[in-house]
Task: structure prediction
Amino acid sequence: MTFWDDVAKTANDAANYTVKKANEITTLAKLRYKLHIAETKLECTYEGIGRLYYSAVMDGDDTMEAISDLMTDITEINAEITGLKEQIAELKNKQICPKCGAFIPESSFYCNNCGTKIDG
Ligand SMILES: [Zn+2]
Result:
């Protein structure tokens, strides 16, 4: 390998690492955004149930089926929120290999992707 090939390879590795790291940060940001949306949806759904219940009691409207549908939605949204929180926790408990940019467990002393020794 010539000197310039080496320089090109190093630059390429650094670029790949930066892209990978950026992708992983983006993934975390996307998950947080999705969580925020799901939590907002949950609040709106609870509010919707409240309005439907109010009109059932105050105006005698038959809203039980609509309420029941929204309750099913709440169960689904809660499951989605739990899943998103688990994914976020999983990403946060990992460190990023300084050489290859892989997500590896916090307690690792060596990267399980490229074998680089991890300091501290
Ligand atoms: Zn690595």
Notes: The chain has a mean pLDDT of 88. The helical segments are 3-59, 64-92. The chain is about 70% helix and 5% strand.
